[in-house]
């Protein structure tokens, strides 16, 4: 498994609305899968990849990847405040791409 952390540059369009762009991982072998993993999220957060909604903290995005991609996360500020101080002004604990080979 190969891991690509999606740290900065997350952009905040407005309170509770975040965007992060990234390119398609190169040299993917046939059978490899790309997972988008959120370590932690505010309950009720809305996640989308290239405008298409995603569900859950771990999603196989292999078939949805384009040359240039954008993740969006929307959280109502009240939800972030209710979730605790680790979320106020922050998106999530950790966001990453995991590339798994067919044998993983």
H/E order of the elements? EEEEEEEEHE
Strand fraction equals 35-45%
Q: What's the overall average pLDDT, rounded?
A: 84
Estimated helix fraction: under 10%
Write down the domain tally.
Answer: 1
Q: How many DSSP E strands?
A: 9
Overview of the structural elements:
Helices cover 7% and strands 42% of the residues. It has one domain (2-100): Galactose-binding domain-like (Jelly Rolls). The chain has a five-stranded antiparallel sheet with strand order 2-3-8-5-6, with no helix packed on it. Strands 1-9-4-7 form a four-stranded antiparallel sheet, with no helix packed on it. The chain is mainly beta. The radius of gyration is 14 Å and the shape is elongated. The chain contains one helix and nine strands, in the order ββββββββαβ.
Quick description:
The protein has one helix spanning 77-83, and strands at 2-5, 11-14, 17-23, 33-38, 46-49, 52-54, 58-60, 68-74, 95-100. It is mainly beta. It has one domain: Jelly Rolls (Sandwich), CATH 2.60.120.260.
């Amino acid at each position: 498994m190969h891991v690509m952390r999606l740290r900065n540059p997350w952009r905040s369009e407005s309170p509770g609305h975040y965007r992060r762009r990234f390119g398609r991982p190169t040299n993917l072998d046939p059978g490899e899968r790309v997972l988008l993993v959120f370590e932690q999220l505010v309950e009720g957060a809305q996640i989308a990849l290239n405008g298409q909604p995603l569900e859950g903290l771990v999603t196989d995005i292999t078939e949805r990847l384009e040359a240039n991609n954008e993740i969006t996360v929307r959280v109502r500020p009240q939800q972030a405040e209710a979730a605790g101080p680790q979320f106020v002004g922050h998106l999530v604990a950790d966001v990453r791409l995991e590339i798994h080979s067919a044998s993983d």
